Structure formats: C-alpha cells, structure tokens
Amino acid sequence: MPQPRILGPDGRPIAKSDLSREIASVSLTGVRRRYADSVAPGLTPARLAGILRAANDGDAFAYLTLAEEMEERSPQLAAVLGTRKRAVLGLPRRVEAASDDPRHVEHRDAVETHLVKSPAFGRLLAALLDALGKGYSVAEIRWDTTKTPWSPRDLDRIRRAYEWRDPRYFVYDRVTGRELRLLDEADTFNGVALSPYRFVVHEPALKMGLPIRAGLARLVAVAYMCGNFTQEDWLAFAEVFGMPLRLGRHGPSASAGDIDKLIAAVSGLGSDAAAVLPDSMRIDFVDAASGAGGADLFERLADRLDKLISKAVLGRSDAADSTSGKLGGEQYASEVRRDILEGDAAELSGTINEQLTRPFIDLNFGPQDAYPEIQLFVPDQEDLAGLVDMLAKLVPLGLEVEQSVIRDKWGLPDPEKDAKLLGVRADIPPDMSALNRATNRAQTPVDPTDPTAPLVERLGREADPLIDELLAPVRAALTDSADLMDFRERLLGLYPGLDGQAFADLMGQALAVADAAGYWEARR
Question: What's the CA dihedral at 459, 461, 464, 465 to 10 degrees?
Fold first, then answer.
C-alpha cells in the first residue's frame, strides 16, 4: 500500500526524513563556520559607514557581527534590549480556536498541548526576539515524526526542538533584498531556498524598507561608537588628571643636589606618598581635575548617549521621560512603552502562527480553511482599587456583576467545592421594609436575637401591598397631569377618597410591637 505523500505549501512533495534532519548545521570550515573576525574594536566613523553600506548592498556579515558584539560590549544596550525582550517573554499566552466547530476546537487543543505548553516554546520566543537587534532571526525546527502528532520535540540537550541559527548563516537575495536564503556550499553567493516547514523567520517591521535595515543595532550604532570614544577619552583624562599635580618649590639658594632631591621626592609621591625635605623646600598639590571641568563633561556626554540608546529601544529614556514624584517614577521609565510592547507581541504572534501553527496543523490534520491562533496579549491596565470602590457603591443599588469576571481581573481562581472561604458574616441583616420607606426613616437593622424581630419583618411584608394601594392613584394622577398645578388639583381631589384605615391598623400593631420591644429591652 503506497504511503501518503507530504506536500509542502508550494505543492511539492516533502520526504518524511527531511523534517527531522539538521539543515543549517555549523562547521569548522566553509560558509557556516563557527568563528568570525571581530569588528567592534577600533571602530571608526569611516569603518562604521562602510559596514552599513555593505549591509545595504547585500553583504551583512560584518554588520551582523557588529550587532552581536555591541550587545556584548555595551551594558546599556544589553540592559534595555534585554528588558524589551523579557517584556514580551513574560506576556500571557493563549490559543484561540478558528470557530466553535468541534474540528477547530480539536486543532486548538492540539496546538495548546503540543506547542504552547512545551518547555521548548519559550526558547523559541527568546530565539526569535533576537531579531529586534539584528533585523531578523531564524530558528530551525526539528520535527519528531516517531510519535503522533508530529511536533517539535527536544531529543536531548544538543538536539533541540527549536535551534537558534546564527543570522550570518543566511543572506537576502540580491534582487529584492527580501527573500532570506541559506548560505550553502552549493551557492556561496546567493544561497539556497529555505526548506518548507523547517524554519521560523521573524522579521519585525520596526521600520519600512529592507528587513536588514530595520534592526535596532543599526539605529544605535553611532551612539555606541561615540560612547566608546567617550569612555576612552574619559579614562585618558582620569589617568592624567585623576592624580593631583605635585609642584615642588625651592629657595633661590638651593644647590643642584637639593633640586635633584626635590625632583625625586615629587616623583616618588606618585607611588609611595612619602618624602624627606629640608625646611627651605616644600611640595604643593594642585587639583587640576576640579578646575578643568572635564570629568563632568565626559559624564554628561556618556549619560546623554545612554539615554539615546534607551530612547531608541524602550521608547523612553531613563530620566527624560520620568518625573520624580509621579506614579511609577524611575521604575516606570525603565519599562517598555505599552504601544511598543503590543506591537512586538502582535508581530511575534503573527510569525509563529504563519510559520509554526499552520505547518503543525497541515502535517497532522491536513490543510484547513481556518487555523487556530497563538496569541501573546498585553493585559489591560485597570485601576482595581477604583473598581472595588465602584462595586461597593453600585452593587447595593442593584448592579448585577458576575463573580468570575471580578476574580479574573484580580487573577483569583474559582473556589473549590467545600473550600473554606473568606468573607464577612452578616450577623445583623439589613431590613428595608415598606414601613420604614413609608415613614421615611433611616434603615434600621434587625437584631436576630430580639424576640420581636420576626414580628417586625412580618409587619414590613404586610405593609408593602398597603403602601402600593395608597400610592397607586397618586402615581396615576402624577402620570396624567399636564403640570404641577394640574397635579395639585388632582391630588386634592383624591384625598377625600383615600382609605388609609388598613394602613393605620397596621401602624397601630407596629407601635404595639415597638412598645413591647421597649419593655423587653428595659428588663433585659
């Protein structure tokens, strides 16, 4: 019986063995070698311009090397770029079915179980977020076809489900500059096409144009280079002016030998801080650094360059966009701006759904008319304290709110059956009877230990229909009246016909109960 064929997105057949074999492997020699010459040391404006120009023309090897080294050499860039990446990695994840159809629900459950909940999924996200700095990032998928459903699985510590691949192993096509191809011995200049279902390529649209020009490393390269110059000049300044100037003074009668001793003493103070001089000689220390103002200049320049890097990566600088005393302060300034975080999450979700979720469904369930979606979503920022205050005011007025909605906002799970619950015990339940409403009295709680409490509750229930009967003609008159004067005349006409005897009898009973309650309270 012939085996069913696996077709790629282009309709061409794919061998089952091709889904699990390593493609973009590293070698000691060849086009995908592990070692590369360093670029960052001695970087000059002319050298940087040449690197960026070569990347525009299709040779991005030096640029990608520089981007890698910038993250390793600049603490500021490593910190803010790491903050932006970790902000996305910390977002909640969910899988949405294409519809309520049972087939689509099954697809969603499979994606959630075998992709999202896999320990390797977080590593995939981290690998793809490397594209923020370099403009693109590639992860190779290793499918495990020995079990069903076929899914990416770690075979061991070396053979991972998703393997980050060095971006220098790839090259964009020379015509459009948009098709990413794998460098290979078969074509060391143009590269070969990427195998279907084997790679996830993330190209965040940080700006329009060629993907290689969209990386943040290109944006902050000049600030990084100037920061290196600043640090070098600052160190040279500190070496010269960090130690105070030692000035030796001698009298006019000093001999040549005395002067030589003074010179030796001044020179020795730089290392041993000890000298022996006659009374006719002295050594003065002049603080040159404080007068030059150079230290402050270098510090302000270095701080300015760091703020430019923060502005480019996080959307705000540490000090420029934060005000002391305001909500969040400096801590808020170090976080990623919300619109940037939402954009990163949406683009990464789109890449995963197109290049991982869809192949997973196609390989296991066949091509579909609609596919589930993996979503990285940014939770809404809500004023929970204000929400509690609003509920405390509106719920007693009749607002109905589902408990599960409030629990979700607070991140609290639904209580288990027979679990011990926190709460306030209402020992004195409120009683807003019609009798209280009719007399316009304040709501009086009913003490359950009072023997007259059941009578009070009963009188309140019996008063409701009597009050409604008395007010019914008044409400009708108010509805039919053209204005206040008309209502006044109608009300005066209604008064003689109002029968309040039943309500008066009930009031008498209520007063008797109140009198009895008073005697009972006095004797208790």
Answer: -100
Cα 432 off chain centre by: 48
pLDDT tens per residue, range 139-182: 999 999 998 999 999 888 878 899 999 999 999 998 899 999 99
Q: Around Cβ 121, how many Cβ atoms within 10 Å?
A: 19
Is it the case that residue 48 has pLDDT exceeding 80? yes
**CB–CB of 163/140 below 8 Å?**
yes
Instruction: Say how far residue 56 (Cα) sits from the centre of its chain.
Output: 32
Question: From the centroid of its chain, how far is CA 166?
Answer: 26
CA-angle at 86, arms to 321 and 180, nearest 5°: 105
Q: Which two tokens stand for residue 341?
A: 């975080």
Beta bridge partners of 286: 245
Mapped onto helix, strand or coil, the DSSP state of residue 319 is coil
Q: Where are the alpha helices (DSSP H) in 129-178?
A: 131-134
DSSP state of 325: T
Computed over its alpha carbons, how large is the radius of gyration of the chain?
Answer: 40
User: What is the model's pTM?
Assistant: 0.66
Can you point out the beta strands (E) in 154-249?
162-165, 170-172, 180-184, 187-192, 199-202, 245-249
Q: How far apart are CA 406 and CA 412, in angstroms?
A: 8
Alpha-carbon distances, residue 451 vs 444, 455, 516, 517, 518 (angstroms): 16, 8, 10, 8, 12
For range 68-77, the mean pLDDT: 93
Residue 315 neighbours by CB under 8 Å, 6+ apart: 336, 337, 339, 340
**Torsions phi, psi for 333 (to 5 deg):** -70, -25
Write down the domain spans for the chain.
6-87+118-218+351-363, 245-286, 382-418, 434-523
Please say whether the beta carbons of 181 and 136 come within 8 A: no
User: What does the alpha-carbon distance between residue 304 and residue 226 come to, in Å, rounded to a whole number?
Assistant: 11
Give which of 103, 160, 119, 12 is closest to 361, Cα–Cα.
103
Q: Strands of 199-202's sheet, edge to edge?
A: 162-165, 137-141, 199-202
3-state DSSP assignment of residue 355: helix
pLDDT per position as a tens digit, 231-279? 777 777 666 666 666 667 777 777 788 778 777 877 776 666 556 666 6
Structure tokens at 276: 């022996």
Whole-number Å distance between alpha carbons of 127 and 88: 12
In contact, 205 and 214? CB cutoff 8 Å: yes
Closest CA to 137 of 125, 145, 129: 129
> Does residue 129 contact residue 85 with C-beta atoms inside 8 Å?
yes
285 secondary structure, DSSP code: E
Give 297-306 contacts, CB < 8 A, sequence gap 24+: 298/230, 298/233, 298/234, 298/237, 299/234, 301/230, 302/227, 302/230, 302/231, 302/234, 305/223, 305/226, 305/227, 305/230, 306/76, 306/227
**At a CB cut-off of 8 Å and minimum separation 6, what does 358 contact?**
371
Which whole-number Å values give the CA distances from 45 to 56, 79, 219, 224, in the listed order? 17, 25, 14, 11
Residue 105 makes CB contacts below 8 A (sequence gap 6+) with 97
